[in-house]
Amino acid sequence: MSENKVVWFLNDRVLVREIRASRYVKGRTTADGAPARQTLGISAVKGYVAAIVDLWSFQKSKGLNPHPNPCGEALNGVLRGRTCSEHRRRRRFEFADRPAGTLQDGYNEAKMVDAVRFY
User: Fold this and answer.
1) Which of 54, 65, 98, 103 has its CA 20 to 30 A from that of 119?
2) Chain center to CA of 114
3) 102 CB-near residues (< 8 Å, 6+ apart)
4) Please, are residues 70 and 50 in contact by the beta-carbon 8 Å criterion?
5) Which residue blocks in 1-119 are alpha helix, DSSP H?
């Protein structure tokens, strides 16, 4: 398996794959209220890469694969780009409206102090 095939596989099949929705966590929404489209994180993508490299090393040991190691500059560029885009996505969701739906959403400071004193 060559590096070009690995990069194609990641771009075509892995990086666009959405994560499964959790039945315990509500779906996240964007600032305008639309549901957020979440794809696999960098750790899952690196898991795919590790599996491909493991397959390559097995094939190489059997003499079936003449290609060099698939971890080259193109693959590292794809992984760096994914890391940057995941960082931007996390910042966008973590700082959008964090107290929405929490105790801080409907209380001002005086009501919070009253609630703490009550309990």
Assistant:
1) 98
2) 40
3) none
4) no
5) 3-9, 42-61, 73-94, 109-118
